[in-house]
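URGENT: need a sanity check before tomorrow's submission.

F., can you look over the Carbohydrate esterase family 3 protein record below? I want to be sure the sequence and structure line up before it goes out.
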Amino acid sequence: MASFSFLFAVLAWASFLNAHALAAGGNSTSVPFRIMSLGASVTFGVGSTTGDSYRKDLEDLLVANGNSVTYVGTKKNGNFTDNAVEAVPGFVISQIAALADTAVPQLKPNLVLIDAGTNNCNQGGTVPDAGANVTNLINNIFQQSPGATVILTTILVNSVAAQDACRVTVNDQYTTLATKLQSTGAKLILVNMRGPDGPLVTDLADGRHPNDAGYVKMADVWFSGIQEVISKGLLTKPSTDVTAATGTGKTGHGDGNSTSSAGPAQTSTVATSAPSPFNSAGRRFYSSSAFAACLGLIIASAMA
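Structure tokens as predicted:
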């Protein structure tokens, strides 16, 4: 009986470690990421204590999975080295598109993360042309950085009822445009920041911008979208035809294939020591209850 209990405990522990590996691992690719985070105040980092927005957490997740990552943009914000970004607080869709028209041809990202439309809703009324304008933005990116993949997000919740209602209608337009563009073969992924995994109203610092916990949730949603990009083989090698420095970068493997005037890419490796309940971004990979259950089984087997 004791040996059976011990065997059961070992199997439970192995299952637990496997679940940990699945949650922690995700997909990785040998293709380096040259990511442009494009948007307004949320992308810039308003509401976070560090100004990092979701960007550092997302980079940590990608690097922990063995990916090479460089952020590109003409602006910088956040308390981390690779903090390039293409975002200005308060900008509406047309202004964000103008940012992209300048930065994308120069930096040629192979992945663009778009969060746009919140400030259009903040101005009041409805935004019936949001979908059409973002479609134009995306198509321009495809032309300006051939081979690029775009991940578009639905926009966040808002504590002001009228502004939040506007965001729902904008998100409906984004869902429609994503379906249409994907049907033409466009390399576009839509992620849902307004879904159950995105920030809630209680995760907002001021009723509009996420707090640190909200930005962690955003990073997780973006990460899920990037997993889809990898699994579908949508990522292409970054262009070498750039007219501006592309940032410092971090790498989990590979050479990063990035040009920079700010120094070499930083290296981060995945730990191979005993399993930890947290990854490099401080996220718990498994629940404490699962850990306690497995530990209890092992103790029980030892006492049997």
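My own read: The two ends are 8 Å apart (CA to CA). The mean pLDDT is 81. If you see anything odd, call me.
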